[in-house]
Amino acid sequence: MTSFEEAETEETVTCLHMTFYHPYQDDKMVFRCLNFCKREQVRADEMAKFGRDSSACHYKLMDTRVSRIQFSLQFYRKLNSSEFCFEIKNMSKKTKLMVDQTELGYLNKIDLPWRCIICFGDYQILAEIQEGESMDYFETHLHLAEAPILQERYLPSLQPVPENCISSSSFPSQGKSPTEMDENE
């Protein structure tokens, strides 16, 4: 057998792509300590922490309004499954963390959807998970957004308007059972 045939099979690696936006990035350079456009490996047994404390966080945000540890991400494998996931936990006592439409208070945690927007303060982060097979580590790939992420993702929904121009939202009691009222009320 040749060395090519004896070589170990290459595993794909789960990669968490994160696109960061802050309205004052150009003035305050809040992301100056983040390593953009280069994949970084993180051991599976380590937590990826984001915040302003350089001794506790690998991903530092240079802003005094950011908590010492703002949030953490834990890589894990679902029970009885080969699927890998991330769990996000709010580590800030002062600032709520929004993951899409879910608000997380201090020490609240949820599974990170495969594509979502994380918000706190003026920060917007688009997180996208690229699946892989490696159990030893995952990778992060950070990007910088030029425009607000929320404007790109959440466009106003266009709901059809009936021909008579009366929308169902005009009738708040619709869908509720009728109630009997006294004519004097």
From TrEMBL:
Residues 49-121 form the FHA domain. Residues 166-185 are annotated as: Disordered. It is found in: Cytoplasm. Pfam families: FHA (PF00498). Residues 167-177 have a biased composition (Low complexity). One of its GO terms (cellular component) is cytoplasm. Keywords: Cytoplasm, Immunity, Innate immunity. GO terms for biological process: innate immune response; positive regulation of canonical NF-kappaB signal transduction. Belongs to the TIFA family. This is TRAF-interacting protein with FHA domain-containing protein A. The lineage of its organism: Eukaryota, Metazoa, Chordata, Craniata, Vertebrata.
